[in-house]
């Protein structure tokens, strides 16, 4: 969770400070300043999504630092939904193929989170304390 959060923060900050660098990292076309058509709101949408990524990243880092497992569980279905929507956007020609990288990132993150939560749940059922549990820290 913390790694995803930090990467989301970095992505958001990059999009806010160097939008062309973010677009290039996603293999999306960049347009030189002053060359956009009137009414082209690409930079507005990039700013909004970058700010959302920054905020989301902070939420993930704070949830990780506090060990807020319900938050972790909530992210799994919504990250899978994001993966599905982004994949469909490419399939339906609403987004370029480079956008599949974002879909894969979301899907892989959801599956990794699900697997980690499942592993922890199994450990708890058999009585193995988590590495960060008070019973291990206090020994």
- Average of the residue pLDDT scores: 88
> What share of residues is helical?
over 70%
What distance lies between the first and last C-alpha atoms, to the nearest angstrom? 27 Å
β-strand percent reads: under 5%
The major pleated sheet works out as:
none
Q: What is the succession of H and E elements?
A: HHHHHH
- Sheet/helix structural class: mainly alpha
- The tally of strands reads 0
Helical run tally: 6
* Rg from alpha-carbon coordinates: 19 Å
The low-confidence runs, each spanning 5 or more residues with pLDDT under 50, are: 134-139
Overall, the morphology is elongated
Please give a quick description of this structure.
The protein has 139 residues and is mostly helical.
Q: Would you give an account of this structure?
A:
Helix 1 (2-17) crosses helix 2 (19-25). The protein has helices at residues 2-17, 19-25, 42-66, 69-91, 100-125, 134-137. The chain is mainly alpha-helical and 139 residues long.
What descriptive keywords fit this protein?
139 residues; 6 helices; disordered C terminus
């Amino acid at each position: 969770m913390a790694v995803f959060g930090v990467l989301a923060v970095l992505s958001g900050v990059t999009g806010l400070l160097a939008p062309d660098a973010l677009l290039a990292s996603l293999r999306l076309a960049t347009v030189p300043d002053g060359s956009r058509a009137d009414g082209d709101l690409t930079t507005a949408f990039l700013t909004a999504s970058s700010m959302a990524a920054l905020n989301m990243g902070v939420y993930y880092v704070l949830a990780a630092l506090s060990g807020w497992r319900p938050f972790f569980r909530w992210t799994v279905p919504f990250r899978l939904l994001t993966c599905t929507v982004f994949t469909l956007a490419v399939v339906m020609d609403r987004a370029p193929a480079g956008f599949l990288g974002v879909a894969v990132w979301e899907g892989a993150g959801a599956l990794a989170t699900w697997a980690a939560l499942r592993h922890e749940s199994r450990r708890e059922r058999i009585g193995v304390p988590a590495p960060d549990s008070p019973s291990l820290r206090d020994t």
